[in-house]
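REQUEST FORM: STRUCTURE PREDICTION
Request ID: SP-0412
Submitted by: Lab K.M.
Chain count: 1
Length (residues): 374
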Amino acid sequence: MIEKRRSLQELDEAISRGTHATRLQALWHATDLLIAGRYSDDQIWVFGEVIGRLAGEIEHTSRVQLAKRLAYIDQAPTRILDELAFDDSIEIAGPILQQSQSLTTDVLVENARSKSQQHLLAISNRKSVPREVTDILVVRGDRGVVNAVTKNGGATFSDPGFLHLVRRSENDSILAVNLGRRTDIPRHIFQQLIAKASDEVKQKLLSEHPNVKRQIQATVTDVAGKLHLKFGPASKDYFAAKRSVGKIHQHGELNENRLAEYAESRKTDEVVVGLSLLCGLPVNVIERVLFDQAGDLLLVLTRALSFSWRTTMSFLFLAAPEHRISSQNLETRKQEFECLSLKSSQSILEFYQSRRDLVSMEGPSRRLPQLYTN
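STATUS: Completed
RESULT:
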């Protein structure tokens, strides 16, 4: 420690005696030495004191150059990095905030809470952005900041952060698309995004990521079911089917074979009521699943119930226009059905079952549950 103090005293004297040119020359010499070698923590601390004192004597242009050089150094002195990162000039702070991997999360959090939108934008473009920081960026950041961090594959988000992005995307189609493209967005939050998104956003996400087709259709079907739920169609045939199928179910005789017979006899109401009872889902949701032209959800549902392809095929023919399906389309559906995982299909069904209580509490005039309250 005594040796450090003596060195710093000599440094002070040298700086005070030197001219601007010699101080600038000494700064670049010290920086070059730091970049070229590997040093102990004590040695890096000394470099930090030297560079810090010299940096205080230089003009804006030289500080910009210094920031650009130190931004890429793993062993750059922490004190100098922090000082440069909080500089009001984005030309100085920007390179450090965007490139330096030596900045701590605490420093980034403090910077994101207090500095300008330009500082926040630089942070948004870092190689990695921890969720503690993105939680602040999605709230404080302007449109450019929020879109930048959402597009950044190295950024991570908490569930509250994702939910806040969903809320902000309601009036920003670009943000909605950027958010929908993220592979780490939780499924339940993705569904909230799709439920709020415009048709244009849905189509764009679908065209770019065909693998999300089932999720989009599942969400649209679920939302439509909640909007139109009125405790089943008010027709005599429906009530008759509800009574007869309900009795069969009470006696424990409602099973796959019985539903296959209904389908082959084109008894649509009986199929819908029967599937509703076996799946534990509202009739209107089952009806929409059955008549969804894509057919993906129906395949998931029958796989989750461990039904055979023959039974599934009878449902597809029942719901098809004029009860006709091309052989090519049927073969495609069969391949898709056989590729479905039983466990995954049951998980999807359980997800919908877990939401039934929310659905049953909503009358036809009630709005959908909101993620946020105003």
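NOTES: The longest helix spans residues 20-36.
Reviewed by: T.R.
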